[in-house]
Amino acid sequence: MGMNLMAAPDTREDVDLNQSVVPDRPWQTVVWNDPVNLMSYVVRVLEQYFGYPREVATRLMLSVHHDGHAVVAEGPREQMELHAQAMHDYGLWATIRKAPQ
């Protein structure tokens, strides 16, 4: 189980160094602002689906309203895809993305 300290460095230009340093970077579910849904409805969805307390759901909704979007969940990609689909089922616009470093 010894390491070869003389191994040649990987000089391929397509290597994403950030990817190899942080392989388990989580994913995020992002809810985006839309012209259709009422603010009270977005709060209710966040409370019902994610179980957030009203204060948290309201803060997230205000981020959506003022900043155009809010990260509503973070974790494994498969779970974030399920969350985004659930948001679509509620009529909200949601996407997933890798969490920034």
CATH architecture annotation = 2-Layer Sandwich
Number of helices: 4
Order of helices and strands: HEHHEHE
Using only C-alpha atoms, the radius of gyration works out to 19 Å
Q: Helix/strand-derived class?
A: alpha+beta
Strand order within the widest beta sheet = 2-1-3
CATH fold group: Ribosomal Protein L30, Chain: A
**Apparent shape:** globular
Parts with pLDDT < 50 across at least 5 consecutive residues: 1-5
- Helical percent range? 40-55%
Per-chain topology:
Elements lengths: L16 H5 L5 E6 L6 H12 L3 H14 L1 E7 L1 H13 L3 E6 L3
Helix pairs in contact: 2-3
Organism: Microbacterium horticulturae
GO molecular function, one term: peptidase activity
Keywords: Hydrolase, Protease
What does this entry look like structurally?
- The chain is α+β, with helices and mostly antiparallel strands and 101 residues long.
- It has one domain (26-98): Ribosomal protein L7/L12, C-terminal domain/Adaptor protein ClpS (Ribosomal Protein L30, Chain: A, 2-Layer Sandwich), CATH 3.30.1390.
- Helix content is 44%, strand content 19%.
- It contains 4 helices and 3 strands.
- The protein has a 3-stranded antiparallel sheet.
- It is globular, with a radius of gyration of 19 Å.
- The model is unreliable at 1-5 (pLDDT under 50).
